[in-house]
């Protein structure tokens, strides 16, 4: 470096040229990133705080079933909180994306100011980007699917879901992988890009559907009244009544065979409570049907003894049938 170059670097014009522009670019990128992150944070925080306030308002409100807000309150303990969490999650993703984009633009502008030829670099980056894109397209698909799943609130931690090959309780929701714990304890790691459908049993409300078979010669109207009365008694129960949202519905005869008549009962419940309500309803029906002298009909069966004797199952006990067969042979 000669004396002229040193003098040029020491002059005011030099520092007001490239170094100043580079400094302005870096400071501008930092301030822009800071401002964008603040805007995103305040927006998502406002949404989250608004949902939380709505939850508190709904929890303190005393409304009846005829009030339109009653059905809004049914999903408030879970849905409102999840919407707040979703807003915060999306805000975090947007802040990260904004930082990456602004930083990349700032680096390119600085390199341009320093005299680098970006043509070959951008061409190489384009070729490399295409190659990496083909190799990482499944990864990009996973992240995009995870982002949309979070944004659309398709499921959340604690939900009981059916994802096709895996079903159970969601333990973790990430942008790339979702973890689902099956009933037998197996922890499934499902890539978000491979999820084509989601069945969620935890959103809004659920329904316990019971098919009750009764003897073919039973009075359908009387049996239906008995079943419906048992279901209404369950709704008044202190333990299970708080899980039932509506009056039980008797949908009528669901199936008809030569042995039985199947009557369908439907009970709308809070999310994830349909199985407990269904078990309690079956136990109550067993008691009430026994009191009414009604039994679940058995399929017609035939027992073959010694390769020749045919005994209709249910017409007599096996011991009585054996004695009858022995007398016939003697």
From TrEMBL:
List keywords of the entry alphabetically.
Cell membrane, Membrane, Transmembrane, Transmembrane helix
Cellular location of this protein?
Cell membrane
Q: Which Gene Ontology CC terms are recorded?
A: plasma membrane
Respond yes or no to whether keyword Transmembrane helix is given for this record.
Answer: yes
List every stretch annotated Disordered. Answer: 310-330
Taking the first listed entry, what is the main subcellular location of this protein, grouped into a coarse class? membrane
Q: Which InterPro entries match?
A: LSM_dom_sf (IPR010920), MS_channel_1st (IPR049142), MS_channel_C (IPR049278), MscS_beta-dom_sf (IPR023408), MscS_channel_2nd (IPR006685), MscS_channel_C_sf (IPR011066), MscS_channel_TM-2 (IPR011014), YbiO_bact (IPR045276)
- The record places domain Mechanosensitive ion channel MscS at 139-201
Gene3D superfamilies, alphabetized = 1.10.287.1260, 2.30.30.60, 3.30.70.100
Q: What is this protein called?
A: MscS family transporter
Source organism: Arthrobacter crystallopoietes BAB-32
């Amino acid at each position: 470096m000669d004396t002229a170059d040193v003098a040029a670097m020491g002059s005011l014009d030099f520092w007001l040229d490239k170094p100043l522009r580079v400094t302005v670019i870096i400071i501008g990128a930092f301030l822009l990133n800071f401002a964008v992150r603040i805007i995103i944070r305040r927006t998502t925080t406002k949404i989250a705080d608004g949902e939380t306030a709505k939850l508190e308002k709904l929890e303190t409100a005393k409304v009846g079933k005829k009030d339109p807000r009653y059905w809004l309150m049914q999903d408030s303990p879970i849905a409102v909180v999840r919407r707040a969490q979703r807003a915060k999650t999306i805000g975090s993703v947007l802040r990260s994306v904004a930082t990456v984009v602004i930083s990349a633009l700032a680096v390119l502008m600085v390199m341009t100011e320093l005299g680098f030829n970006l043509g070959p670099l951008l061409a190489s980056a384009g070729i490399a980007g295409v190659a990496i894109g083909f190799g990482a397209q499944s990864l990009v698909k996973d992240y995009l699917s995870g982002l949309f799943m979070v944004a659309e609130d398709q499921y959340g931690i604690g939900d009981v879901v059916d994802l096709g090959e895996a079903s159970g309780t969601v333990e973790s929701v990430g942008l790339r992988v979702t973890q689902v714990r099956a009933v037998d304890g197996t922890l499934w790691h499902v890539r978000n890009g491979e999820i084509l459908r989601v069945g969620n049993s935890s959103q809004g409300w659920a329904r316990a559907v019971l098919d009750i078979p009764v003897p073919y010669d039973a009075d359908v109207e009387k049996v239906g009244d008995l079943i419906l009365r048992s279901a209404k008694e369950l709704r008044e129960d202190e333990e299970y009544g708080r899980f039932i949202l509506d009056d039980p519905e008797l949908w009528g005869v669901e199936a008809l065979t030569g042995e039985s008549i199947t009557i369908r009962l439907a009970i709308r419940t809070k999310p994830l409570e349909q199985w407990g309500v269904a078990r309690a309803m079956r136990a109550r029906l067993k008691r009430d049907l026994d009191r009414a002298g009604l039994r679940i009909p058995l399929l017609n069966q035939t027992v073959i003894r010694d390769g020749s004797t045919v005994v209709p199952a249910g017409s007599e006990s096996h011991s009585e049938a054996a004695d009858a067969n022995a007398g016939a042979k003697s």
